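Everyone, study these two lines:
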Amino acid sequence: MKRFWWKIAGIVCVALGVVGILVPLLPTTPFLLLAAFCFDRGSPKLHNWLVSHAHLGPIINDWHNHGAVPTNAKAVAVIFMATALAIGVYFNLPLYVLAIQAVIFSAVSIFLLTRPAPPK
């Protein structure tokens, strides 16, 4: 029964990751990494499908093998976080909300920018 729930969680994470490709502020990579984790525990067949997928697999394999994030993914993430913060300023959100966003976005940006790029 546990494997069933791991499989369901993995499917939900893949779905969120795919939606994240289309929706700017929804992250793709963390959901795909979480899906791989869930599938590893719930369905070896789905895990193998995900990590060998032509479009989704390289992201997971780069992270797993090298702790690497593609340069274009880093740039897009930082740009979208800056845009989200700018939108908050534009809509005059309370200062504490902007401060929380700024701290979180800064921490995530520092983390991303210090990750290596995947080998060619």
